[in-house]
Amino acid sequence: MIDFLSMLLIIIGVAFFAAGSIGLLRLPDLYTRLHALTKADNLGLGMIVIGLALLSGSLVMAVKLILVWILVLAGGAASAHLIAQQALRRERA
Amino acid sequence: MFNTQVILLIAALLLLLTMVLGLLRAMHGPSLQDRMLSVLLLGTGGVGLLMLLAFILEQPALIDVALVLALLAAMTAAALTRRKASDD
Amino acid sequence: MLAYLWNLLDLVLASLVVALGWAAVASTDLRRGVVLFIAFGLLLAIIWARLNAPDLALAEAAIGAGLSGALLLAALRDEPATVDDIAYKQGPVSWATGLLSLVVGGAFAWALLHAHSAADPMRLADQVSTHLEQSGVSNPVTAVLLNYRAYDTLLELAVLLAAVLGIIAVGQARPAYRPAGPLFGALVGWLVPLLIVTGGYLLWVGAHAPGGAFQAGALLAGAAVMLRLGGNPGAGLPSAVTQRWLLVSGVGVFIAVGLIVTVDGHAFLQYPHNGSGMLILLIESAATLAIATTLALAYIGGTAPVGQDVAPGEEFKNQGLSD
Amino acid sequence: MLATGLIYNMAGVALFALGLRAAVLHRALLGRVLAINVCGAGVFMVFVALAYQGPGQVADAVPHALVLTGIVVAVSATALALALGRSLRESGDE
Asked: What is the predicted ipTM?
């Protein structure tokens, strides 16, 4: 049962990644692409992390996975903000 | 009963394919920021892929690799956006 | 079923890496080339992980995807803004070179195909695993680097030293970056300690799990790069004299340990059996600092200016869109 | 069915040949440096593919150690090349 749940979460996570990639390809400008990418991917990674944490059955591993996810969240948020800011600056210049 | 390994491997393959899709943006651009976005995608997707591989290959050390990748991907994005003190 | 899926994954990864490498070098726009090269480095880290080489995946994630990306992006700023001469050579030389690389690649491929069809050769790997217990560490890669082939590693550290001496001799430090705004300051504030702690962790686990001096040094250098990007022109490095001591410490401690064991009647760099673990850790700690300083100076592009730390409070003066 | 090692060996050879061609043909220094790095990555890939010994098996540690130092040396050499190029440009007789 737990296995099934974790597989489901992982597949849903991959689906979020797919949505992010399609958004990156199809959306019309940088800011919308940024929006699609950072939200969908970080959520997708979270799903994969929770799925794998359930699968591992070990608390240490689960904590480690979740820590990496938090780092990706913080890093991704900062990077996205910096990239948007730089693009805005270019536009104004 | 399903095979956990096979499903994880299929998930890894699909994740890789979405990364290929995202890399098309790196090839087309048009701006440097657009390309960098696709590197961000490759970073996040790479972290996910490394975690999946850690379980498929039963190599817990790959989680450390995912950690390093997450730290350094943030640094690369930062390096792209910084300006010299002399610029305005 | 599993085997076919692996094959599919391998084929996708291999064709993607070749496509990215091709796009990175074939691009006449260098900015495109550099960003594609960063993506190429990230993908290499994943490929090393897939090929059961976690030590390499760690190093590539830190260096290929991180440090050389930051270095090339900094170099991009040095390039003149005009892109007139940024192009490929055309005409007969192009054809001749294409043909030449085709021939060289073909010969290379032919040799490898033969190596694959040949009978399973005797591998050094068996030797490595048989003697692993005597090496003082249980991570085979660390054992090869610091024990079985310590001469190689010593000379490689010497090569690094020579490279950084060249950089110090010819280069001046690249221009500094403007002080960090609030967001970037916060990023530096949490990323730098994490990079340092992870570096220390990798140095320690290198004895029995993937990690070691090279990976740890690269992460410490990443911390220095972050500090410099945050507006600290000296990248957090110590004074110029200390920098030089750190640079030579890798080779220096290595040679000193190698010589000290000879007092006991061993050959140069032949560690005594019961103390080899500690000696390896000692050498690796010195090598970590040396590699970190080397890579940080390589990023800065010359001797780092020291003692120009931004005064507290100063960094938040240019707010608004200043990140 | 293809051998995993063979796939990556051939990818490594392809990268080597691509990098070699571009290293000669690129006019800009930075382009050549990129090309040489791709070339080197191809060689690393051949090494790692030869070290691979099948699923579930520990790979050969000797090529790994060689490539590990190679990666660090490659980035230092890249930095040296860029520093040389910069001082050439600054002295004005490129």
From this structure: 0.92
